[in-house]
Amino acid sequence: MTEKIVSGPPKVVLQKWFQNPYADAIAAARTCYSPRVIADTEVEEVHKERIGKTTFEGGHHTVYTHATFKFGLENVSRQFVWSFLHAHPFYNSEQSSQRYVKLNEVKVTVPPLDAANKKVFERACRGAWQAYRELTAILLEDLKDDYLKRFPKKELTDKDLKKLEKKSIETARYVVPIAAHTSMVHTLNGITLYRLYRLMNQLPTSWEASVVVGRMVEEVKKVDPDFFRNVEDPLPLEETLEFKAVQALKQGSSQEFIREFDAELGGYTSKLVAFSPDAERITADAVRAVLGKSKQELGDDAALDMLVNPAKNKYLGSSLDLATISPLMRCLNHAHFSFKKKLSHAADSQDQRHRMVPASRPVLSLAVSGQPDYITPPQIARNEKAKQVYDAWMGKAWDYARQLTTNGVPKEHAVYLLPNALAVRFIESGSLLNLWHKWVMRLCLNAQREIWVNSVEEFEQVSKVAPRLVKFLGPPCQVRKTAEITPWCNEGKLFCGYPVWGWGPLVETGKRPV
After folding, report:
1. Least enclosed by CB within 10 Å: which of 150, 251, 312, 434?
2. 253-267 pLDDT, tens per residue?
3. What residue numbers bound the domain in which 497 lies?
4. CA of residue 193 relative to chain centroid, distance
5. Is 485 left (phi over 0), alpha (psi -120 to 50) or beta?
6. What does the record list as coiled-coil region(s) (predicted)?
């Protein structure tokens, strides 16, 4: 019996919203010119017409950021979320995780296809789920063996097996297509929704974005028809920046880009390619500026030590990231680092959630190769049977995608069949203030393996060019131990089982378990 494909249309529900959002924006604008705070109940139609138009057309858009809208989204693809919803910093999402939620049904977003190509697409999705199930079973046996070696005196309980199964699906998901459905709560402010609406037809997920964002706008109009009264209509695809760039360039394969990028990586998954040359000095200068001290009164070493040493700066060990609020910690904003990176689509979908470390990610339909181009997790690489299943499916996934494009299906639609393992190449930059938070979180052994390796490589390279800035940096347990904050591991029942706080610099140990 052929397995059923679950592919309903996107479901968009406005769960919570700011009351009277348009009137509130106008009231906020009026408050700027009043000795008191103006309430939304004081706004009349004449104010909406006059002030609303002038503030919007004049670019005075902060008044539209007070209103927020919380949506429940279901039946949206992970490709759409990665390419559009999470590709900018101004949102908040809590998303169903493929790391922890087993994919029992073949639930995917199917692009607009004719009957014959839809059959090809669905056949590919069924094959991906079969590979997913096979890998889950194979990897679970490896994880059982690993667990009993780590805890030789312990018997596996049902609770232990559930945890191990979650670890197995975390790796098995690499074969699942990026068309796979996800669900989330997604919160935006008003101006961000305006911007998404204006550019919802842009590459590379224009057809899905136009449906989802269009419905988000419809939901908001139901509670306040005025909120979109001054907003421009969406730009047609042909007028978007990326579409025009593509039309102006010679079309061809992305193979040369891939070869060039990988050669420049030089074996790294993340290579430091640019940084503030005087990062330590400018950071020390910033500390002195905050405290009003001269170099003679406060030398570089002492200034940096009071900032980055958890024994002196207890904020570093806090679970609540206080960096942007602390005047001294804001000094870390002046050291910048840029990396060329290569991650799987699965790993980067998590990595991009560090939205204060922005990246230039590819328009996927333009940057993917016609040949298999994917990341293999070490948990699969070490098991010959798992690797055979994995590599065989990777070849088939690209075959199916090529079949669609050969049949005339737009590449934007065909890439939905490519797996989570798809290699994504991009440039990422950030200040040390935001990279510090990211590295501490992702150097924990509970972090996804790919992102952990990425973070170790970045930490190692920055240690060579700005050693005094990161000499105390490490996973939370190491930082908290130095800060004398207990418990050293703040993961509770999710403790990894390894005394990482005593390992020393991670780059010198190689103790990370597979």
Report:
1. 251
2. 799 999 999 999 999
3. 277-334+443-508
4. 19
5. beta
6. none
